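Researcher: Here's the sequence for the chain we discussed earlier.
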Amino acid sequence: MQNAKDDLQSRWWKLEEKFMDKFGKKPDVEAILFLIGVQEVRNLKKKFSKEQKQDLMHVAVCSLLAQSGYYKIESYDEEGWPHFQQLKSLPQYNIVEQENFLKDHILLYFEDVNNSFAEF
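Model: Thanks. This is the structure I predict for it:
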């Protein structure tokens, strides 16, 4: 199990390095979720309300977990925001395991050639 954790950490550091090269600072998980949410909604406006930022992070989490069959897009509203349907229960993890689970899905997301941060 330690090798998998070490591999996750080294892959995460490489992703952080790419973000640092692109944006000039090291992002936290919440910042990455925000950027994924913006990319998924395809809304590049400059300012978002606090509620919209939370909604974007929710879109990001659902989009990430859709990769593993936990969610699927059910519909889009008139403003282009996706709405998701939960397909299966999420695993019960402690806080560290939850973060690693999410980080692994973030890494999978950015390994997809269609999901770069070229748009940001």
